[in-house]
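New to this. Explain these tokens.
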Amino acid sequence: MKVIAHKSNSGKGQALKTGFSYIIEHLPQVNGIITADADGQHSPRDIIRILSESKHQSHSVNSLFMGTRSFSGKVPLRSKIGNLITEKIFQLVTRTRITDTQTGLRYLSIDLAQKSTSIESNGYEFETEMLLLATCENCTIKQIDIETIYIDDNSSSHFNPLRDSIKIYWTFLRFTGISISSALIDYLLFYLVLLSTDSTLKSFVIARLISACYNYIMSKRIVFKSEEKSYNTIVRYIMLAIFLLVSSMGLTKLLILCGISIMYAKFIAECLLFIASFLVQKFFVFSQIQRT
């Protein structure tokens, strides 16, 4: 057994990152990492079950297995309410339903663990940012039911309901804020370029190029606060941006043919694309996120 200690309490997120970094550097043969809280909330049986389930996963697949508590029985009220609120906000922001966003019992593929070390947050919000990162990386996420255990009303927990909750929800605010501001930049640039060039094609391309670059850079630096270069992620992002550009142009032109002015057509097209992406993610959520 190897015990690594910090000189002072640096936060749960930093403790996890220190452990991840040590394993990645000193144990290159490891394919995945299991984390479990030290406050007795996770039984040895459930930890072994997560390990057993992870063995069925291909090592080439970027994955996250989560031990999901039902929050039934004798559970502190603050834990029930806090988890419910976080679950609904996470679902609203990512269009992905994870019923126990704060569970500490997780299996991470080594690739996801490595990417997580670039997240700057060091407190409890680190685990939420890890989930956001997993959804952005299109990880296979599997939820596995585990026992709900709270010892002495969870009095040993260092979680501060006010301070740590604010940090967690601030993560969501950063995430949605960038998406909204990207859409505004796209729409404004489209209008300005159209006024100056009278070219619909140039307006679409320039607006989408600048807003997509802004979204990518800000997501890495503000949401995940990461300077790590991931060429696979960049390639996927470029392909998505091209697809959205072509789709937006096609829908806008179709709406113009129906007699709608170009700016209204552009706005309606973007709204329709947003709704379509929401429905597609809802349809495929069962293949990405499983529950046993």
